[in-house]
## 1
Amino acid sequence: MAKLYSFLSDGLVRRFEGRSPREIVGLTFKTIRHAARRVGPAAARERRADQAFDRQWGTDTSGTVNLSALNVARDRALLGFGYQASNGVALQQALGLAGVNPADFTFIDYGSGKGRVVMIATALGFARAIGVEFAPELHRVALANADRFLAAGGAAQRCDMVLGDAGSYVPPPGPLFAYIYNSFGPQILREVLHRLEQRAAAGETVIVVYVNPKHREAFEDNGRWRIEAEEGDWVMYRPVTA
Ligand SMILES: C[S@@+](CC[C@H](N)C(=O)[O-])C[C@H]1O[C@@H](n2cnc3c(N)ncnc32)[C@H](O)[C@@H]1O
């Protein structure tokens, strides 16, 4: 009992450490809401849908992981959000509307977690698919997933999983199709966008799909991005070129 108490209180301390009282209240409500959503038939249906990809390919991409449970630099963790996988629908819809050939693009998932959408991108025919994830525990799972997906015939080539911070990641040359599933707040988002803006200014084609777009201001406040398409829970942006 004492051990359980200490385990729970350590977790809480890590989750709340460095947060303002206002953030702690917000996080507490979020945790209660999250716990309540995990019961009932709708939650069971959602879980089954989340696990469908893994059932098909023998991978491990489902579930959620809080950043406080992961070995990431505290100052960066405070600027980011935890793990939950995309189902690939937004990517397929956006790719259809972008009217480009994925074989001409490198796909980059900024904050790729266990790598589900990176594997989906490889299967959709991108020339190369890269996932950038800063949590070593999730990165390790993503590497194993990439191997399993390839071995199971999910794609003709292996995707690349990179361990690192999205804000400092330097994308490879060539046309870029970037994907962000609400991985972080505006500060890191702006760091990522700054590099992509530099690429666009140098004449490179850049497309960004932003899913669960909670911080659109990072795109929309500086006049450097225009909305190419928008549907359901995602927005697709292209840089404004002079
Ligand atoms: C909502 S999940 C999205 C997972 C994946 N993109 C997908 O769509 O399946 C957000 C992920 O971003 C990662 N993340 C948050 N901040 C990050 C940062 N600064 N650099 C790299 N990864 C980060 C988290 O660890 C988590 O795995």
## 2
Amino acid sequence: MNAPIVSFNHVGKTFDVDGFTLEAIREFNLDIAEGEFVAIVGSSGCGKSTLLRLLVGLDTQFRGQISVDGKAVTGIGGERGIVFQEHRLFPWLSVADNIGLGLVNEPLSAAQKHRRIHDFIELVGLGDFARAYPHQLSGGMAQRVAIARGLVASPRILLLDEPFGALDALTHQQMQDELLAIRARAKITTVLVTHDVEEAIFLADRVVVMEPRPGRIKQVVDIALPHPRQRSSFDFHQLREELLHELTSDDHYQPPVPVQVRDLPLSFIAY
Ligand SMILES: Nc1ncnc2c1ncn2[C@@H]1O[C@H](COP(=O)(O)OP(=O)(O)O)[C@@H](O)[C@H]1O
Ligand SMILES: [Mg+2]
């Protein structure tokens, strides 16, 4: 492949928690090509958010190297935009002003910013809502505002941390379709963190399966299925089974204990 746009080399991360050392990431190595869509999947606590925070430059205390375009990451930068699970919109700012926050560090005139903000409002399909406030939006619309804010500085890399996790199933699927449509228009390298295997297979070119304690790569799987992908297809189903098996076959994995009817209080059963 050409020189990667993102490169993790021997990355390790520990936290000090009450005098103990918690190893959150061990020996993480990954190259991401320009324009590629990589999904990182793994159970809760396996270090996915930590990895994104390191890549975006919010935390610079780690072992190894992370580089973007061959340059070491030493802090946040406009070429990396991030979208969090909770949309983190400011309730007292309009949609346009929330998106404008993504431009505070950009050397643009007010008129250029205005034009850019409105281009991105259109891109995420919220043309009629520029002056609306977050409380007037549905969960899916608010998350689209957050995506527009992540994209408005025209980053070359979009980082998404479980961006659709809090949405209902239907909105969730619509947002996945929209993310692919946005990517088709703005060819942007994308790193998505998710615990949802199906989401990873639906969207990504490559899926990195993590295992926990300490967080490390278990397997990297190429997803060669053509777009638009059919969740009900045989190939999709097979990949899903394979990845679920990878995720759940670790030694520490505890399957959820099914609740027995007899364990429930009587009042529950009567109801
Ligand atoms: N700021 C922090 N201080 C201490 N421990 C942390 C901190 N951030 C994350 N951790 C720990 O690091 C591990 C990985 O966390 P995280 O990256 O949030 O996992 P994930 O996003 O995959 O659920 C967890 O055990 C978590 O408790
Ligand atoms: Mg997380």
